[in-house]
Amino acid sequence: MTSQARRVVLAALAANLAIAATKLAAFLLTGSAAMLTEAIHSFVDTGNQLLLLVGASRARRAPSASHPFGYGMEVYFWSFIVALMIFAAGGAISLWEGIDRLSHPAPIDRPWINFIVLGAAILMEGASFRVAWHEYKAVAGSVGFVTFLRGSKDPNLFAVLLEDAAALIGLVIALVGVSLSTLGWHMADAIASIGIGLLLMAVALFLANETRSLIAGEAASPRVLAKIKAVLDGDATVVSAAEILSLHLGPSEILVAITLDFDDALSGPQIEAAADRLTAEVAKADERITRVFLRPGKAPPEKTAAATSAS
User: Fold this and answer.
1) Are 196 and 283 in a shared domain?
2) pLDDT tens digits, residue range 285-308?
3) Number of domains into which the chain is organized
4) Which of 5, 29, 99, 263 would you call most buried, defined as having the most Cβ atoms within 10 angstroms of its Cβ?
5) Given strand 253-262, what is the order of strands in its sheet?
6) Please, are residues 166 and 95 in contact by the beta-carbon 8 Å criterion?
7) Is the pLDDT of residue 132 over 60?
8) First-last CA distance in the chain
């Protein structure tokens, strides 16, 4: 986990723990289903931040004989567990609580307590989201929010972004539900709980799909691959880059395997020298490239056949 991502997770952890305790107290005082749902949501988010920190800690372990490429992909596993937690412990429980309350709607006691708590929670959650948003802008630049979420290789950052965004939307839903219930439509509190549950389940499914793809093994971004290709194309000893394969071993680790068609006029020692030089230059193309495997050779047969059929 980068220092920026760790700061985002710790900010979210502190905010969610404070918000969860406040919401739970509000539920005990008022009996609001939406407040109970929000309290569950915040406690789940707190547990999620702890899981992300566990994953980051385990990912930092040094490579071993059983894991020669290190443990960086543990981050993706623990992020997937976070998605399951949001779905089951957050979304499903919230949905069940709302449906259960629909069968016996009741007025909320002392609703002013809920308004105070929800207002304070919006401020605290907003502060946490602002930290995550600033880190997103620092990393993504002009890349759009949805595009960043789908392309990011660091679930520590995009999981917190999604959680904080969902939390803010959930607070607004809870505020509307409590307000309508106070005005006399007592079912609104239960409907708000159902809405929050569905929101959390949608976020969980999106997060699970993104981390599933990372666990399965995603290539480096097109921008990184373009930098690698530029290095290879600019070298006089290389006729063509027959194959460039990449794999994220973690958010900050990329493995690159390259097959290069060298100039046939080169001698064996010259090819070895060129390979050593290019290995170092490719590693410099992006600070996340930690392992480079390079071999001389032509394009694999399946690549050649595909190129022939396309022409």
Assistant:
1) no
2) 999 999 999 988 876 655 543 333
3) 2
4) 5
5) 238-250, 253-262, 289-296
6) no
7) yes
8) 45
- Rounded to whole angstroms, the Cα distance separating 279 from 267 reads 18
Q: How many CB atoms lie within 10 A of CB 188?
A: 21
| Secondary structure (DSSP) of 109-158 | SSHHHHHHHHHHHHHHHHHHHHHHHHHHHHHHTT--HHHHHHH-S-HHHH
Rounded Cα distance between 180 and 283, Å, is 59
For residues 68 and 202, membership in a common domain is answered with yes
pTM for the whole structure: 0.77
Q: Do 72 and 155 fall into the same domain? A: yes
Q: Which residues contact residue 140 at a Cβ distance below 8 angstroms, ignoring those fewer than 6 apart? A: 148, 152
Q: Could you say which of 169, 190, 217 is where a domain stops? A: 217
Question: Is the separation of the CB atoms in 47 and 9 below 8 Å?
Answer: no
Which H or E element spans position 56? helix 33-59
pLDDT per position as a tens digit, 189-229:
889 889 988 998 998 899 899 899 899 889 998 999 999 99
Backbone angles phi, psi at 173, to 5 degrees: -60, -45
Indicate whether 88 and 196 sit together in one domain: yes
126 and 47 in a single domain? The answer is: yes
Are residues 167 and 262 in contact, defined by beta-carbon separation less than 8 angstroms?
no
Tokens of 145: 């929010």
Which H or E run contains 185?
none
Domain end (from 187, 217, 247): 217
